[in-house]
Amino acid sequence: MGKLLLGLFFLARVGTGWCEGARTIPVSLCMLDGHPKRYNGKMVQVRGSVVGAEGLYLSSKCGQGQGGMALSIPEENSNPPSPFRLVHDEAFDRFSYLLGHLNGPFPRILNPDNTEVHPLTPCYCSIQVTVIGRFQAVSEEEARRGRGFGHLGLSPFQLIVESVKDPEAKECPQAGGQH
Length: 179
Known about the structure:
Elements: H1 2-15, E1 25-26, H2 29-34, H3 36-39, E2 43-53, E3 55-62, E4 65-72, H4 90-100, E5 108-110, E6 116-119, E7 124-137, H5 140-144, E8 157-171
């Protein structure tokens, strides 16, 4: 009877996500960049800086270079459907807010010489975040041919976001060096 209760308790905890961490592999962007085949299709947990210009990317310094990948945030009713449901929690809400102000909100108040007087809302120059999601990779050759991920399919790697943790941001200095 004791083993049965213990077994039921274990199954109940697994169903509520208690063992969620057991299926994710903590890894650095540099490890993913250096060994993409090892992690392709796996759930990973990785921390990096968010970069957004033509798409959304996660990056980190790797030795003398830069490692990075496209970030894909699944939509509720995407086609094809996402392999899992995006976790909308307090950390994700904070991350979404920070993304909306990465490199500045608009409109801004500008001087005649185009220098910023003061943003109407905070402006963040960098965002650090831990992302948990499914890593996907294509060969460098496929990416060069535009069959990868991100803007124009040129990134050989992608991370489909399941959840985020610990989003942190650094505010951009305001005009005149004030913060």
